[in-house]
Amino acid sequence: MDSYAPILVLGVIAVGFAAFSVVFAGRLAGPRRYNRAKLDAYECGIEPTPQPSGGGRFTVKYYLTAMLFIVFDIEIIFLYPWAVHYQALGWFGFFAVLLFLVNVSIAYAYEWRRGGLEWD
Amino acid sequence: MNTLTVAGSLAAPPFQPPDIDYGLLLPMLVVFTAGVLAVLVEAFAPREVRRSFQVGLSLLAVGAAFGLTLVQAASPQLPETGGILVAGGTVAVDRPTLFLQAVILLLSFVSLLLIAERRVGDGSFAAEAAAVPGSEEERQGILAGREHSEVYPLVLFAVLGMLLFPAANDLLTMFIALEVLSMPLYLLCGLARRRRLLSQEAAVKYFLLGAFSSAFFLFGIAMIYGYAGSVRLSAIADAAAAAGGGEVLLLLGIALIAVGLLFKIGAVPFHNWKPDVYQGAPTPITAFMASVTLVSAFGAMLRVFYVAFGAMAWDWRPMIWVVAILTMVVGAVVAVTQTNVKRLLAYSSVVHAGFILTALAATSAQGLGASLFYLAVYGFSTIGAFAIVTLVRDSQGEAVRLDQWRGLARRSPLLALSFALFLLGFAGIPLTSGFIAKFAVFEAALAAGGTPLVVVGVLSSAVTAFFYARIIVVMFFTGADEPAEEPGSGAAVAESAHAQEAAGGVSVRTRPAPAVTEAAPQVEVVKPGLLSQAVIAIGAAATLVLGVVPQPVLDLATQAAQHLFVR
After folding, report:
1. What is the CATH superfamily name and number for domain A52-120?
2. Membrane-crossing residues (chain B) (predicted)?
3. How far is it, in rounded angstroms, from Cα B508 to Cα B396?
4. What ipTM score was computed for the predicted complex, to two decimals?
5. Domain spans of chain A?
6. Which of B298, B306, B321, B488 has the fewest CB atoms inside 10 Å of its own CB, making it the most exposed?
7. CB-CB: which of A85, A110, A113 is closest to B8?
8. Model confidence over B506-522: pLDDT tens digits?
9. Distance in angstroms (rounded) separating the CA atoms of residues B460 and B438
């Protein structure tokens, strides 16, 4: 347990540093010159999505798109290792990935047929 | 291209594809294939044919999987002692697992009958789940007579997860099974046709708390992996036995995994989701969760604690003792104050989880056998009880306030009688299945030195008997025409109800009811359709038969548990 003491000390210092720099340092030393870009919501450097007037609500369509994105994002995670070791994994790997792809496409087909891909 | 393969083969030993005995996984594969097919039907078939196809497909798949499970249990391939490890040792097929899977499939079949019931109040599931409650879109869906038939693939996927959960022989497979069974349940909870907001609230609560407890479970897996260097249950047991136990990592891991599992069974510090979710979910889904999910979660918990942590029993037993005592006492005491039938049944389910935990703490073959029997028995009575809850209705949907159940026996004696039978079964009155099950569980706990547990168990049993008896009194010995708040002659009350109607008050009744029902606000007992009748009959028959001649099933459970789980 003794060997963990330095880690603990470092952790305390790190937390203290973070707390100090976020809460106090900026307020004490930083200049405050705001402009329109600074006050905008940051969204990957592109023009922020227009918000409905008076509300903070996004349309539910974003949620469907995001869900679809996650599904295919995770599909890629499984495809990369398989692609790299394609020959070592052989037919077993091939059919395993094929089965996976078929199942993902079935979910995709369901969303497509239910109009999840139509924006308007 | 050649250099790539050479580098790959140098870095790791050549890949050996695992030898998968698909025959032994067939029950799960059948359910999974049916679920996938059902999604395709949802996507491509016209709306009119979907529902009937889905009902047929899911009943067929669950029935076929049950048959295959029986074939496996009878096959000579299965060794007399122990079992077989499938798919590289990630799935175990042994006698306790087959017993649990058979019970899960049977109970799922009965639940599916209840889910498919459409004669009672135009179905239990939402017309347009995505529509805002009370919106025009929702009204259109209801007018068109729609009902989400996605319910059936979701139930099939949940059943798949539940089949895998108690069979999983390593912690990662178990986690995947946990997620596969939980995700569809989160969705199903939000699909109630009536009281949409309550249903959606239940779904969100269940999802957030469920995700939270899954994180605990996952964190526990990480701890255990750090300790044992493996997620395989037998490897964890070996590592723990070699070290003699007591290590911080291992104890932390056990505690965190226990949190994840105790949440699913609804034991007391982690029971708060149960009443809310059971109340908000569509009642057939509540029946499904209260019976099948409990069987599956207990199956997984028994396997983890008997196989992986069996050598550490002295370390975790105090924890399970405390949880079991808390579960029995808090569940029973809080249930006494409930006035909502669904919430009351939810708290009763909490208490019963406590009773089964006393047998789990025994870590013996006797305890395992008693738990298996208890789970089967409790499942049937629970589905029957919730089936009756769907039938007592007012204009809002189900009439779940206890005072609305007043005088039920006079209006539909048979229904009240079967509900009383289920309640007596829950209370553990002799000649019902609940008595035998409770006896077996407490006997196992006593044999393992759990006398304090049994004392608390018997005491809280007495408390539960009180509130079960209270419902029986409400149904049989108070008339609907004599509300306790304002005693008066039946005629006077009936007259005042007429006056209310004349004054333009509430009058949505579609057919004339006898004068006796006037006092209660439009509560009526719907005539059960064929499917509900079957569900109630099966539940009542199981409660009675397993109470009068329990021996065959009790023997089956004892034999299945004789050699414990395969390692």
Report:
1. NADH:ubiquinone/plastoquinone oxidoreductase, chain 3 (1.20.58.1610)
2. 24-45, 57-78, 98-116, 151-168, 174-192, 204-228, 248-273, 285-306, 318-337, 344-365, 371-392, 413-432, 444-469
3. 11
4. 0.78
5. 52-120
6. B488
7. A85
8. 434 444 444 444 444 57
9. 12
